[in-house]
Each structure stands twice: as C-alpha cells, then as structure tokens.
Amino acid sequence: MNFTLALLAGSSLVGLAAPAMAQEPVAAPAAAAAPAAPAEGEIVVTGSRITSSSFAAPTPTQMVDAAQLQANAQPNIFTTIAQLPSLLGSTGATVGNNSTSSGTQGLSSFALHGLGTIRTLTLLDGQRVVGANVTGVPDISLFPQILVERVDVVTGGASASYGSDAVGGVVNFVTQKHFEGVKGNFQTGISTYGDNAQGTAQVALGKAFMDGRLHVVVSGEYDYEEGVGAGGYGEAAPAGRDWYRTSTLFDTGSTAAGGGPQYIRGDHAQAYQYSKYGLITAGPLQGTAIGADGKPFTFVYGGNANGVQGVPAKNAAGTVNNCYNGFCMGGDLSGNVGIGTTLQASIKRWNTYSRVGFDITPDTELYVTANVAKISTQTQPNPGAAKSGLIIQCANPFVPDLVQQACAANGISQFQYGLSNAILPNITVNPTRQQYRFVGGLTGKASLFGTDWRYDTYYEHGESITDIRVDNITLNNRYNNAIQATVLNGQIVCSNATARANGCVPLNIFGNVAPSAATLNYIEPGAGPFQHTRQTQDVASFNVSGEPAQLWAGPLSVATGVEWRREWYKVTGDPYSNGNGAANGDLASLYPVDPTLNAAGNNWYAGNYRSGGGSYHVLEGFLELNLPVIDSEALGRANLNGGIRVTDYSTSGTTYAWKIGGTWDTPIDGIKLRAVTSRDVRAPNLSELFAAGSSVNTPNFNNPFGAPVNILQITSGNPALKPEVGRNTTAGIVLSRPSWAPGLNLSVDWYKVKVSGVIASLSPTQVVNFCFDGTLANCKNLSNAYFDLSHADGVGNFVNTQPFNFAKLLAEGLDIEATYQFVNPLGLDGRLTLRALATHVIHNTQDSGIPGSIPIDSAGVNSGATPNWKLLGMQTWATDKWRFTLQERWFSDGVYNSTYIVCQTNCPVSTSNNRTIDNNTMKGAFYVDVSGSYSITKSIEAYFKVDNLFNRDPEPSPATNTGIDLNPQLYDVLGRMFRLGVRVNF
C-alpha cells in the first residue's frame, strides 16, 4: 500500500507533452463523430453526447494519447490500452490458448472493472464495430491502428448515452480524419529467449484537394508475431524458460473437523492415470509402464509432502497409497502435458483503411470510410491428446509379451490403461478473422432558431467472417476402435467388424511407435473440425446537439438522437461435429457417413462446432440534458447532467436506461467534485440467444423423479432471454492545476456496479433438481420445456441447459489518476512528465443464484483478473531531439481463491463452499519497461523498447489439476522483449 501511494505521488504522464486532464480532454466525443471544423478553442468532452465548451461530464474518463501509444511501442495498441489498471480481464494473444472449442484464441477485446468483455462497449470514432465473435465483442487487431490519435476510456456506466453493452464502460478509438502527409512505422522485435520474433510495417497517406474541401486518407498495415510456442512433455518450458513446476493444489481428502487441510499447495504434480508412452493404472498389473522401446518397466511414483513414496494398491479403483486424490508429488513426470500449451498465439495481421471526406459547406462534411482487415492465428492447446481409463484386452497383439504373460499369471483378460499419446501429432487450432466495415455519413453544424446545432448521421455495414480449423485431432470412436486390435488371417486388424468395414486401421499405443499414414488418416482425417461463421451488423444513426437556451448560469445543452441496428449471424460446423458424416453434397467425400460414429455429433476429441444462426434488431432513442445551476465566484460552477434512452429489442421488448449526475467546480482552488448514477443494460448477444444446440449422451443420469435414466444433454441458446440490468454509481474528487501546483492533476473516483438478471447456465443436474424442488418455474413432472425423463428406454430423454437470467454481479473499487509536468526541471532542457493510474478493487462478487451456493468475491484473487491493487506508472524526460521513458506495472499480492480457509492443523470442516488449504497466498508482480527515441532528422525518428526489463518470471497459478497453471491475464508469461523501430512523418 505504501509503495502504491509513493508511486502515485511521484509518477505522471508519459509523452512529449501532457494532455489535458483526462476528465476534460480536448477532443471529439466518445460516441459522436466530431464536426468538420470545430470552432477555435472549443472543448468537447468524452463520457457524454453533449458537445459544449461549457460542459464537464460527470462520468470519469481516462485518455491515452498518440505520444503514449508510440512510447509503448507495441505491435498491437490493444496491449497498451489493456495495461490501464481499470481494464481487468481483457483477452489477447496470451489468453485462452489452452482451449480448443472457445473460438477466442488470439481475440483482442477489453473488459472494464472485471465485468467481462461482453459488458464493455468498444467504439471506433464513436461508432459501433461488427463483432469478431458471436458474443458481439470486436477484435482490436482489426482496427486501423496507425491513424489512432487517442483512446478514451469511459470507466462508468454509459448505456444512456451509448446504448447496450456499456454496463462496465466504453473504450473509444479516435482516428485522424484529416491527416495530411506521409507517415510510417517499421518495427522489429524478439524475446530474450530468441522466440516471438515480430515485424510490423504501417503506412498512412493523407492529402487535401480542391482548396482543402476534399480530404483523402488511406493506410495499410502488416504485422507478424511468431508467438511463443508450447513446451513439450514433463516440465520443460519452451526455449529454455525454467520456471514451470506443475504447481497444483493437491487434494488430501481431509474434510473432517480437527484434521489437516483438504488442499496442499505443492509443485511437481504427477497424474498417475497415464504416462508418456503408456501405464497400466488399475488391477494386479498397476504400475507397469511402457517405455519408448515398447518394453514394460516399473513406473516411478511420486509420493506425498512428507517424502513417503506412492505405492500402487493394485485394486480395481486404481488407488495409489501415500499419494493424493488423482496425483502424487514428484516421481516420473515425463508424461505431464500442462506446459504443452502455446504461451502466445502466433499472429499475422493485415489491415487497410481509407476515408474520403468532402466539405459540402465550410460546416458540413460528407464522408465515407472503408476498413478491410484480416488476422490469422495459431495455437496448440496441449500436446498429443492424453487418454486415461482405456480398457485393453490382454490378447491385443500390440500388448508386449511380458505384459501378456503377466496377464495370464494373474488370471486377467484385460487391464486399465492411460497414456499421453505422445506418438500423435500435436493438435493445432487455426482461427482466421476477416472484417469488412463501411460507413457513410454526414456531419456538421447548422443554425436553427437562432442557435447552432451539431449533427451527425451515418449508416454502417459491417461483416465479420471467422473460420476456425483444428488439425491433428482424433475422432473418439475411431481412436477407440483402432486401439482394439486382433489377429485375423495372420494380419493385425481392428477387432470391430463394422469399424473394419468402414476403413479402420489399427493403432499401436504401446511405446514410441509412429502411426502409419493410413492409421493417422483413419483416426485423424485430414478434414478435421471446422467452423465457418458470418456475422453482419447494420446501423443507421442520427444525433444532434446544441444549446437552445441561455439560462442564469450558462447555456442549456441538449443532445438527442435515434438509432436502428440489426445483428445477424450464421454458423456452419463440420458434419462430424453435427452428425456422423455427410451423405450427400460437397463434403461427402471428406466426411463420409460412418456408422461407428455418433449420429448426434460431438465425435471429435475436442472442437465440436455446431451449426446454427439467428438475428435481432434494435430501435432506440435518447435524450440528454445539461443544466448549469451555479456560476459565481462565491459558489463556483456546477451543472446537472441527465439522460434517458428507450430501446426496443425484437427479441425481448422495450427496456430503458437512464443517468443523473453532476459536477461542481468548487470555489476552493482547483477542486472539483463529480458524481453520477445510472441504470445500464446489456442485451443478450447472438450466441446467448441463438447458439446451436450441442448435445452429449449421458448414461445413468441421476433422476430425482425416479430411477436413473440415459439422457441427451442439450446446450443451446435461449431466445426468451431479457437484458441484464446494471446500476452504476461513481463519485469522485478532482484536483486540477491549482495555483500552488500548476502542473498537477489528481483524481480519485469511487465506483460501484450492481448487475442483476445476469445471463448464466445451469448444469443438467441443477436443472432437474431445481425443477424437482420448485426453484425453477414452469416445471411439470417428468416432461417439460426444460427436460423430458419420461422414457424408460432412454430414447427421447433430454435435459436442456439453456442460459437464463438468474445470476448477479457486484463490482466496487477506486480509480485513481495523477499527473505532473515540470518544464526545464533543475534548469535542464526539456520536460519531465509523470503519470500514474491505479485501481483498487474492493469487491468483485459473483452470485450464481444457485440455492445452497454462496456469493464469491474475487477481489484480490490473483488466479483471476481482479487483484486488490493494480498500478501503471510512467516517467518521461523529453526534449525536441530525444525522449526517454520509464514505465512500471505492478499489482498486489493476492490469493488463489477467496473462499479458502487457511489452516495447518485442527482445521474446520472443509465444505464445497469453503475448502481448507495450507497456503492461500499468490504473489503479485512488479515489471519495469524502458523506452526511448531519437530524432535523426525532423521527419525521421528511431526508437527502442524493452518490456519486462528484469525478465521477471510468472507466478504459478495452481488449480486442482495439472493444466498450464499460469494466469496470463495478469502475469507476463513471455519474459523480456526487445523492440527496435523507425518512424517517419513527412
């Protein structure tokens, strides 16, 4: 805490010149394009639709200008913005790479105050952008980045001004609309480990014609980032990184009062259900492993924290004595798969942008813009495809002779087996996103009833096309058929006759035996899982603002407008994800019908993409007023700001958002107070409304209405969803350039956001149990819209796990910002500019709404995205010739889980709501970045940047499994990065 306060007192703005205080930036509004020619000295503010020099918005807004974007020297400016402390939980190239089916790999999208990317509205020049994912969030990688002159981050609820999704706030990218000249940026980079090689080339051209009435701006960008690939098996992290230790929370099984903790935090976890090339995991042969040469050997089990070695019990349950539930500590770790996940996705990014504007009159501009962009990424979710619990027949001809002999000696005909499948090629996920966005509009100023009115009207059409292809992945049933071999007519063949008739080629999973091409083609056909998604967005908008009346304390300001929007999508998945093949059509040869596969689909090891689609449209109107109430030397200057928005959704009907707030420039030198409260909404997105039903067969489902039954678990969208409703309140104090410290700006804002009707899903068991006990309405006996359990033979039984509006969220905290600038400090040439931003998360609570559960507060949970404190500090010394910047990124120590109870002995009862643990401390991190530039000529500048100067390793983020155990949302998982570049501006 003292460290934070020290940096807040001594850090400030980075850049060649300090921008205006973030609460009153001199620039275009965050949600309305600027007029063609603003009046001299005119101030327009973010956080509101009002555009008046006499107006100060009550909603806190942070700004990142072009100088800071350049100083941070990132190939994707998303990274620079995501470093702001108020942005908690954003995605990016290092996040979500252990997933196969999410479709978000490499997707760069913002989240404010830990409320999720779907509750942060991201705009380009105040206009919506078509989603790059069916959740509706855009990909910042597809924005025209070289022309961005600043980014405004509105950290309060803003639905009344901007519409749906602004529950957490708004991030608006403002571009240079009338740029003239030629500018370029050429950058290269590499990590200290010799990977993540990067090259970026960006060029923009602008020129005015016809005596300045015609403005043409074009830009093009290409960025390649090699990424940081996966490690392999065991604990070898990629390229010599040495920090991976398979850290895990070991489950001791101790839950009764008076004993030790249930969880023990430890390193070098060993999953004893498999090994690299094979392990018998239960029965009399338990502990027999297979080496790379195909010969059996005795597996080396780890043990427990006391150093006692694990001993296989050789029972049917596969128990290992002296170990923990599912894991030992230490031993043979060669089969571990956790580090085999890509640390940063590789990226290839292309972007073109053009804007043509024509001044019909000096105050009216007609313009069109076109943004065409593409990004391709690749990740590896894990190596091979680990399998456990396989039942292998002793008579299988691939089983080593010594194992067959042991089977006979022990009177068994089969055994349980697991392996990492290191013999298989590694799975890769390959998403490609393309964006086509076109805008035509008219913006300007006109006189009506003796006053000037600004107007902005535009039509936007956007298309997003996403293709996801998964390579080197198995079809579950084909794999299971291939490993069950027998000898027929002197040849080793698949045991299942139906499988043989449909092309089955046997697979030897005993040792390091490379599968034949025919075997791989059978279990991993070249045409793997794919998903093709096309989304469109159409927006028609008209906004007008002005000052129709002069009141006792200043002009009454008004902004009003209407907007119509249509969102549409269609997704097509492959025939094996949706069924057992294609009987006809173009895909029949690639995905032939196979009777051994599941007719309902979901046949792949992972990445089962379903087909579907849907659309909705929105019509809304808003009114915002600013009423000046005080303007005097004795009392200062104050205004009230209010707004209302009425929205009609084609799916859920009419809803509304509102806000009321104000600012008071007190008579005390430099002190301003501000506060605002609002009702905000987030409409359900296309995925939540219309997600195609995926289905999984679940045998022996526990049925509270009667005997266990077989069911089909269906996961689908819910067209009956209603908008989430948020109540957002902020209050703050601003110290702005007081006479006793004219270079100082300081603001402290408290925020509290409550969101009700949060959209979430129940599990099949919860759906049925809640219908049984009356928690869910509209449930009828054994058959209703949620489920049907009425068929004893299982045919026709289903449980529908649609999302519902039943959860709640709460976010509360402080946003702090301080800036200071010294001109010619200590008599030296140049300017020393300082800036610090900090966010203190007091609460970030999720209430699932499930009976018997408790709300979980993730504030300070460093395995998540909301540490108690997060800080960004920057110090820049700049002259006309050179600039040097030092940047610090810090977040506080935290815990693994806020519900855990720490104890060593005499522990209380460990429950599902409150587990006991021996250590619940997860260290924070402190990173130092350094950058500098030198002007070779007036138009050419060379620069460098070093991220993570001291190469701080990431902190382990252990869970109750042996996954990647890292948290890239907070920690740097790449290490030190070097970048060099040249900028030109003619």
Shape: globular
Mean pLDDT: 90
- How many alpha or pi helices? 11
| Major sheet summary line | 22 strands, antiparallel, barrel
Structural class by secondary-structure content: mainly beta
Instruction: Specify the helix fraction band.
Output: under 10%
Rg result: 30 Å
**Share of residues in strands:** 35-45%
Distance between the termini: 47 Å
Beta-strand segment tally: 48
Low-confidence stretches: 1-45
Signal peptide: 1-22
Keywords: Cell outer membrane, Membrane, Receptor, Signal, TonB box, Transmembrane, Transmembrane beta strand, Transport
Domain TonB-dependent receptor-like beta-barrel: 432-949
Organism: Sphingomonas quercus
Q: Could you walk me through the main structural features you see in this protein, from its secondary elements to its overall organization?
A:
The protein is mainly β and 986 residues long. Among the domains are: 472-528, no CATH class; 685-720 and 763-800, no CATH class. Helices cover 8% and strands 44% of the residues. It has 11 helices and 48 strands. It has a 22-stranded antiparallel β-barrel. Strands 1-4-5-2-3 form a 5-stranded mixed β-sheet. The radius of gyration is 30 Å and the shape is globular. The two termini are 47 Å apart. Residues 57-170 form the TonB-dependent receptor plug domain.
